[in-house]
Amino acid sequence: MKGIILAGGSGTRLFPITIAVSKQLLPVYDKPMIYYPLSVLMLAGIKDILIITTPHDQVSFKKLLGDGTELGCNFQYAIQEQPTGLAEAFIIGEKFIDKEKVALVLGDNIFYGNGLVNLLRSKINIEGASIFAYPVKDPERYGVVEFDDNKKVKSIEEKPAKPKSKFAIPGLYFYDNKVVEYAKKVKPSDRGEKEISTINKMYMEAGNLEVGEMTRGMSWFDTGTVESLDDATEFIRVLQNRQSTMIGCIEEVAYLSKFIRKPDLKKLSKKYGKSNYGKYLKQLSDSII
């Protein structure tokens, strides 16, 4: 399976913070925001990753992440000229995806929790599509999934004015190779965007859509507003300081996923100098037998 991170958009809900810098490059506590969704794909065992950015932000992403070699990965880059919908990611990434299955994660989404790795890796060989459901107080901000009493999907709506349920669909999706074909059939919605909900409906109508409810032990943040960005930062800060472990540390994930070895990890720790991030990697590499 290959992976795509959609890190485009203008981030208007965060203005003026994002006028001069991409939302996905903003700090969430001690790391750039994109480290978190990137680590999710890597935790799933995905090494080939396409990062889709705006034209003017791509240089900054390349400077931050490079080509992925030092992490044992292969990073490629593509441009989304305008924020015309999530479904467009599969059209932009068609050549990259080729004949493989693909996971899409949004560049401003953060996931954490017990069982996350097993959940992610269970989707690698998906036949059809797999999405998730997470209960929220403001479902009108998201794609919303409605279940029946047997947890079968009844409907999927994109940012409905009157949501039929409290279950939002987080920005993490797993698809087989048919997703490219489906994406090409998507027409712009009333909002002028090619909605990913339309793709999910196509899979649903074909009887090939899995929807899993995220458990209470898992946390999800969509950091698209100042309030949610602040919440995510506080969550990461408290958890890391209490547990002395890092969330979204891509070098650590690369080592645990066996993409790199101990000498590589030790070398990477020097990249960050005397920062706490660098100290954490050095302590980690020193503790490995």
From TrEMBL:
Domain Nucleotidyl transferase: 2-236
Assigned EC number: 2.7.7.24
SUPFAM superfamilies per UniProt: Nucleotide-diphospho-sugar transferases (SSF53448)
Swiss-Prot/TrEMBL cofactor(s): Mg(2+)
Family under the similarity heading: Belongs to the glucose-1-phosphate thymidylyltransferase family.
Function: Catalyzes the formation of dTDP-glucose, from dTTP and glucose 1-phosphate, as well as its pyrophosphorolysis.
NCBIfam families reported for this sequence: rmlA
Protein name stated in the entry: Glucose-1-phosphate thymidylyltransferase
